[in-house]
Amino acid sequence: MKNLTGHLLFPTLILIALFAFVTNASTAEIDDFKNIVRSAAQSTAGLKRCSDEMDRAVNSMVSDTTFATGIFKAATSGNTSALQSIYAQKTPSCSVQVSSLEKDFGFRLSFGDPTTGNHFFICFVSRNHPVKCPDGTRADIEITIK
Amino acid sequence: MECISRKFRLLFILPLLLTGIHFAWSGTQDTVDDVQAAGREGTQDTADIKVTIDEMNAFISTLNSNPSYLASFFDAANKGDQAAVLNLVRQKIAISRASVRELTITHSFFLVLNVTSSKGKQFGLCISTDKVKKCGNGKAFDIGPLN
Fold it and tell me: Which of A5, A24, B21, B41 could form a disulfide bond with A139, CB atoms 3.0-4.6 angstroms apart?
């Protein structure tokens, strides 16, 4: 009897240890996954905020004549900081920068999420501008995500 | 008599000429209408990007906030079950088109999803629980444009 217990005890202990190891490993894996998802959620939430604000600002160019007039004046006079602050009114959590401004209003803006560094670049050109946006139209978006 | 006729002719021609010059000149000048026209083109792009990013955010937020969705996704990805992974993804990414570009299983999973917006902008969404094989940015999660 003692011999039988001795024989059973050892494999049982090994099985228990193995089970504990496997369970622990899978728990660790799902915990890792949860951590990955948590940081991913911060990144996509920042992107969402920024794309919402960018969309609102661009919509205001169409619906708000005062806003459009301000952009027109700043862009045609080459006033980068004025152009930046006009767009910044519509983007409280997303930082706006004018990355290029050319004569006859052709400009490129970046809307960036300060927490993640992700950026949306949007290009606007007038009908008289010799160079169009990268997609050949008067407005185009490029995205740089970090 | 001839002088009066010439004056009348001038009276008609001059305003016409001035109007023509005005239109020709204004045709080459940018106006506020131009800003609004460019904005109108831009809104189509921003709306397209916004919807796609909203959906990708909804997918990741649901993974983050819904434990049973997370467990199902983790299980499907770990088994390498592309159909089950895609089925879960498509519950959240419905308007944009999502597909699995890569799902590799070693002892953990490496997944890259393709997400295409209605206007054809493509995004890659990478999640890796693999300790060795990381996403393009060298991290466990990456989201980036493909075109």
Answer: B41
pTM score above 0.90 = no
Q: Which two tokens stand for residue A63?
A: 């619906």
Structural domains in chain A (count)? 1
* Residue A51 scores a pLDDT above 80: yes
Q: Structural domain of residue A106, as residue ranges?
A: 2-144
Distance CA A58, CA A56 (A): 6
This model of the complex carries an ipTM of 0.77
Contacts of B121 in chain A (CB under 8 A): 141, 143
At residue B27, does pLDDT exceed 50? Answer: no
Whether the CB-CB separation of A129 and B37 falls below 8 Å is answered with no
The amino acid that residue B70 corresponds to is: L
Contact criterion met (CB below 8 Å) for A97 and A112 = yes
Q: Which chain B residues touch A if contact means CB-CB below 8 Å?
A: 28-32, 34-43, 45-47, 49-50, 53-54, 56-57, 60-61, 63-64, 70-71, 74, 78, 108, 121, 127-129, 137, 140-145
Closest-CA distance, B75 to chain A, in angstroms, reads: 9
| Closest Cβ opposite residue A105 in set B30, B41, B141 | B30
Q: Are A94 and A49 in contact (CB under 8 A)?
A: yes
φ, ψ dihedrals at A137, nearest 5° = -110, -170
Distances (CA, A) of A68 to A24, A107, B40, B108: 60, 14, 11, 52
pLDDT tens column, A81-133: 999 999 999 999 899 999 899 877 889 999 998 888 888 899 998 877 778 88
CA distance B44 to A124: 13
B2-23 pLDDT, tens digit per residue, is 655 766 666 767 666 666 655 5
Output A81 or B147, whichever has higher pLDDT.
A81
